[in-house]
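assembly run, all chains below
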Amino acid sequence: MPLAEIVLKNLQTKIAQLQTIAESDEVGAVLESADGIARVRGLSSAVNGELLEFPGKIYGTIFNLEKEEIICAILENHTKVKEGAWVKRTGHVVGIKVGKDMLGRVINPMGDPLDGLGSIKTETSYPLENSAPGVVEREPVRVPLQTGYKVVDALVPIGRGQRELIIGDRQTGKTTLAVDTIINQKDTGVVSIYVAVGQKESTVVKLRHQLEQHDALKNTIIIDAPASAPAITQYLAPFVGCTIAEYFMYELKKDTLVVYDDLSKHAAAYRQISLLMRRPPGREAYPGDIFYLHSRLLERAAKLSPAKGGGSMTALPIIETQGSDISAYVPTNVISITDGQIFLEADLFNSGVRPAVNVGISVSRVGGSAQIKAMRRISGTMRIDLAQYREKEAFSMFSSELDKETLRQLKKGALMVELLKQDKNKPLAVEDQVISIYAGVKDLLTDIPLERLSEFETALLKHIHANYADIVETFRTKKEFTRELGLLVQEVINDFKKDWLNVPTVPN
Ligand SMILES: Nc1ncnc2c1ncn2[C@@H]1O[C@H](COP(=O)(O)OP(=O)(O)O)[C@@H](O)[C@H]1O
Ligand SMILES: [Mg+2]
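ok done. output:
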């Protein structure tokens, strides 16, 4: 073989080897690391969202791919990542290990237990960012998800697979409404996931205790990213909750309920990360993709078609407003993404209307079709009564002489408002709600003093459960309200009321 050819051959093999070295460009170097954000050079083939490994089994996820460098957020122990350290591609995106044993547990967004009850056995891994099910994989929302609150189940009903926003200032009962809804699922088979973002640890401890007391912890998973946790942890928490719910929805064909408490803090965490990455700030200093952040999270809620197993994910995102301002950037975004919203108002709350739902501006765009028939029938009448009340209430303040009809409407409205009040942790089964609201709508409660209404309601329901179990049973199973049943209930209520008010019956 001529010398030239040998040289050429050698060169060719060398070049081939060189290429393989170039292809394995899987190791880079840290240029800078501060506040949980690392700038990395090299890794030319890395992709957005990929998990990177740093020395000491520390991981980070890629947020920005720039021409010269990669910006990544470090998930844990970010202070241990030093400038000049190596960084490796892992070839996969961030995933979360999931399994049935997570039920009843409190975990952090990395999946580590926080309740000191030992390690959790997991079965498989699900990607943190998953695409939402498409149109053919879905089904319309048809099955109700009862919150146990009369005002919500009657006027802003939620269906399984729906996304209903709970919005209001601080201390207006947002968390209580969501947690009571979880408690109300203790016998429904619905798996609940409560995601705490940026809350005090003591709040989460209290909440866990509450769920345990009401025997609802067994069906619940709590994901805690406290205020003291790094922004990236708070950013990841809702996605982790959503991913775990997807596991139960797709794999175990379960109905699931996810509470994101709250997305205002989630948005703030994302803003912090974005500003540290020097992404250009937009309105209220939020990055341009803040809308996409929440829409891709909430779009994953769904009612699946039978072919997909028929499971569902209902999402109850919570937004905390400042001074009832719902026109701020994040609230308007989330309002437009969800299928309706429950407005809780500080004024109502402070005047004793609890739950402080403003029924005039709260809506549920899909839940109505999921309501049981009996409830749908009577709640329509109540909605009208309340609307008339609101209209007349404002106007009655300026006028001393009111006609009879207006007075009647005012009285009825006040009674309805009173009837819809409900203490926390006291959910009512839907059949009881129907009886109660029916009594109000049919003017059977007009002679009960308002301040004794709740007492009467409790006594009445107890009486009916004890003596007319068949009525309750009919509601529970048939879920319809026939004329005969209505008349029977009226008679029962009238009889009971006579005794209760201690009015001697006049013999005729
Ligand atoms: N329906 C209710 N009846 C009585 N107290 C309530 C009710 N809802 C909420 N509360 C009380 O009001 C306070 C604030 O409620 P919380 O749910 O923590 O508000 P938020 O989450 O909006 O800040 C809590 O002490 C809670 O127990
Ligand atoms: Mg709260």
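The chain is about 40% helix and 20% strand.

The chain has three domains: 24-93, 97-371, 375-500.

not gonna interpret more than that til we talk
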